[in-house]
Design a protein that fits this description.
Shape: globular
Distance between the termini: 47 Å
CATH class of the largest domain: Alpha Beta
Number of domains: 2
Largest sheet: 7 strands, mixed
Structural class: alpha/beta
Strand content: 5-15%
CATH topology of the largest domain: Aspartate Aminotransferase, domain 2
Strand order of the largest sheet: 2-8-7-6-5-3-4
CATH architecture of the largest domain: 3-Layer(aba) Sandwich
Order of helices and strands: HHEHHEHEHEHEHEEEHHHEEEHEEEH
Number of strands: 14
CATH superfamily of the largest domain: Type I PLP-dependent aspartate aminotransferase-like (Major domain)
């Protein structure tokens, strides 16, 4: 019987993309669905960046680029890391990829051997454990729930480390929770990492600029950590460039060389035109980044306020990204008619079919007590969606 490889059979499909697809299908049937399932800014790419892409086309940037990306873009990233993060890298310590998602996967594939362990704080972005499995690694989950603001402690990290531990994946600001690690919290984690010789940290900082704490902190800033950290970032969230597919790693040169070797075999360099647009995004005015951040902060305040008015939901205040991850377990066991809500996936499907609001169950993120809503949408959509959610949840008895 024909069947796919064992490697693929170990993987689960992306729950966020699956929920988005279901909501799109309902929309196609004429149903008015508000989609809060996808982590994507609703803004258009700023005009000055689009103009740079048009110029690149006119100037015939239409051929293969170097595997690691154009030197000019890598220099722009080096300059950005120095200017904004006080981190010193060279162009040889940067690898540009087809989105930060590929940057994460490249790193996992380059560092993790079969049987080695990858520590992943829970809740996690849906793809982290799947990428560990793809590399033959073993995901080790550290529960960091609602009560601790979804942040892993240094003590929890130390307790999870074994002789097989190879990599920690840390996302701050976090998808799916919006939690942001403080400088003190990161320093404590860094001290644990430095005590273990072969342990590295993949710092996913893609939401760096969607941050309401006043300043982004990177775990790579501490003495000794630049040699142990792989910083992942990109243009998707900060510049509303999700479809342009440009991400990067900043890491020790031997890791970058490994990722280049891997990337050279299965994608080569990323889109030439997208790279020139990204270079312009990094080198020109950053006013657009702050404008979008302010809009997200306003929406954060709105959705938190409205969600707190819904009986049965427990809501924390996310400090970054554009997600709310409320605790909804008080609804488990409740029903309307013959429909029983047993878990967060049931709840998300109920909200979609009954309330016509697409969310994602927390099961997909490793936290079955919560569900995720993206507030990367208009104020009107937020108000209407929260009204629908309140009405749908109010029917459960």
């Amino acid at each position: 019987m024909a069947q796919l490889s064992n490697r693929l059979q170990r993987l689960a499909p992306s729950a966020t993309l699956a929920m988005s697809q279901k909501s799109s299908e309902m929309k196609a049937q004429g149903i008015d669905v508000i989609n809060l399932s996808v982590g994507e800014p609703d803004f258009n790419t700023p005009d000055h960046i689009k103009e740079a892409a048009k110029k690149a086309i006119d100037e015939n940037f239409s051929r293969y680029s170097p595997v690691a990306g154009y030197a000019d873009l890598r220099q722009a990233i080096v300059d950005k890391l120095k200017r904004e993060n006080q981190l010193d890298y060279t162009v040889n310590e940067i690898c540009v990829s087809n989105g930060a998602k590929q940057s994460v996967c490249n790193t996992v594939m380059a560092l993790v051997n079969p049987g080695e362990e990858v520590i992943i704080p829970t809740p996690y972005w849906v793809s982290y454990p799947q990428m560990a499995l793809l590399a033959g690694g073993v995901p080790v989950f550290v529960q960091a729930g609602f009560e601790q603001n979804f942040k892993m402690t240094a003590e929890q990290l130390e307790a999870a480390i074994t002789p097989k531990t190879r990599l920690l994946i840390l996302c701050s600001p976090s998808n799916p929770t919006g939690s942001v690690y403080s400088k003190e919290e990161l320093k404590a984690l860094a001290e644990v990492i430095l005590r273990h010789e072969d342990l590295y940290v993949l710092a996913d900082e893609i939401y760096e600029h969607i941050n309401y704490t006043g300043r982004h902190e990177s775990i790579a800033q501490f003495p000794g950590m630049k040699e142990r950290a792989i910083v992942v970032n990109g243009v998707s969230k900060a510049y509303a460039m999700t479809g342009w597919r440009i991400g990067y790693i900043a890491a020790p040169e031997w890791i970058v060389k490994g990722c280049n070797k891997l990337q050279g075999q299965y994608t080569s360099g990323p889109c030439s035109v997208s790279q020139k647009a990204a270079e312009f995004a990094y080198t020109e005015s950053q006013a657009c980044v702050e404008e979008m951040r302010q809009a997200f902060e306003r929406r954060r305040n709105l959705i938190v306020d409205l969600a707190r008015q819904i009986p049965g939901l427990e809501v924390n205040v996310p400090e970054g990204a554009f997600y709310l991850f409320p605790k909804c377990s008080s609804f488990y066991g409740k029903k309307v008619g013959n429909r029983v809500i047993n878990n967060s996936t049931d709840l998300a499907m109920y909200l979609l079919e009954e309330g016509h609001v697409a969310t994602v169950g927390g099961d997909a993120f490793g936290d079955p007590e919560c569900f995720r809503m993206s507030y990367a949408t208009s104020d009107d959509n937020i108000r209407e969606s929260m009204k629908r959610i309140a009405e749908a949840l109010g029917k459960l008895k």
